[in-house]
Write a structure and sequence with these properties.
Layout: H1 7-17, H2 21-34, H3 41-56, H4 65-69, H5 72-76, H6 82-89, H7 93-104
């Protein structure tokens, strides 16, 4: 897993993320306890980056436990969700989709 880090670590996390939510929840909680040790700071940073990237791609929600424990991650991400944009800007979903469509053309 640590050869070609963090790529192989991300592969392991992808497989982990595919597990049933009950199993994933317990194992995730136990793994995060290990990450509290300063000796694993590099792994922790890669772990947080992985989940932030998942949020940026819309694959998890912003109320995921990683973001509850470390709200600064929500500020550091690259994208906001349509819901966040709608609530902050008072735009409709249709208006947001038109803007996105114009930006991608």
């Amino acid at each position: 897993m640590f050869k070609n880090f963090p790529h192989n670590f991300f592969v392991v996390l992808e497989k982990f993320n595919e597990k049933h939510s009950d199993i994933r929840y317990l194992q995730k909680m136990n793994f995060e306890k290990v990450l509290m040790d300063k000796a694993f700071e590099k792994i922790k940073q890669a772990y947080l980056f992985f989940w932030t990237r998942k949020l940026d791609h819309g694959e998890i929600r912003r109320d995921f436990s990683v973001f509850k424990m470390n709200e600064r991650l929500l500020v550091e991400r690259e994208f906001v969700t349509q819901d966040e944009l709608k609530n902050k800007s008072k735009l409709t979903y249709q208006a947001i989709k038109r803007i996105v469509k114009k930006r991608t053309n």
